[in-house]
Amino acid sequence: MIHWIFILLYAYGIFKQLDDISELENSGLLVFEVFFAIIFLIIVIMRYSYMRRFETFLGAREPIPSAHKYLAKTIHICMYLCLIILPISGLLIAALFTQGITDGAVQDLIIGIHGFSADLSYVLIAIHIGAALYSRIKGEGVWTSMVPIWKENKPVTNKKIIKIKNLENNFFEKVEDIFSTSK
To answer: pLDDT per residue over 119-142, tens digit each?
Structure first.
């Protein structure tokens, strides 16, 4: 449930973003932005703390290659890192603004970090959604543990999809072999 609340907050954050820092001169908007960033940060930390307790690919019907798990975990960690940096950098922007620092090197740096984090979060979330849809098409069982619609009842039987799954698993096994022999 917290996942879906967070998605709504994230989407709202995208659509309500400020075009110019001078908009923070409106004290009501400034207070709202600070409150929003704090709530956003709390929910992201709660979500990350909750998700850390579970295995990646929760609900998978078949064994997932370790290299695939590592890639997924790395993307998840990067995604959460971006989602934590976003509100923290937003709060820093607001704090500097309230101290009269509306421009200059420090404010520009924080705004740059905020913008980069937002842009990177779009890419990582798109990868996350694409991977979830791909997993659903492959019928791995992971989708059902994440999404309340379009449930998976059984493994996929489509020969082309099975062939793609096998190629993918072979690829990840070769990656594992490369890294396990290089130690």
So the answer is: 999 999 999 999 989 988 888 888
Give the pLDDT confidence of 137-174 residue by residue, as tens digits.
888 888 877 777 887 777 788 999 999 999 999 999 99
Distances (CA, A) of 137 to 14, 70, 152, 169: 28, 21, 9, 15
The distance from CA 51 to its chain's CA centroid, rounded to whole angstroms, is: 12
**Structural domain harbouring 48:** 2-181
pTM: 0.86
Q: Nearest-CA neighbor of 38 among 77, 78, 84, 76?
A: 84
Report how far apart, in Å, the C-alpha atoms of 140 and of each of 2, 67, 86, 146, 170 are.
23, 17, 32, 12, 16
Number of domains in the chain: 1
Dist. CA 69–CA 130, nearest whole Å? 16
Q: How many CB atoms lie within 10 A of CB 152?
A: 20
Terminal Cα distance for the chain, rounded: 42
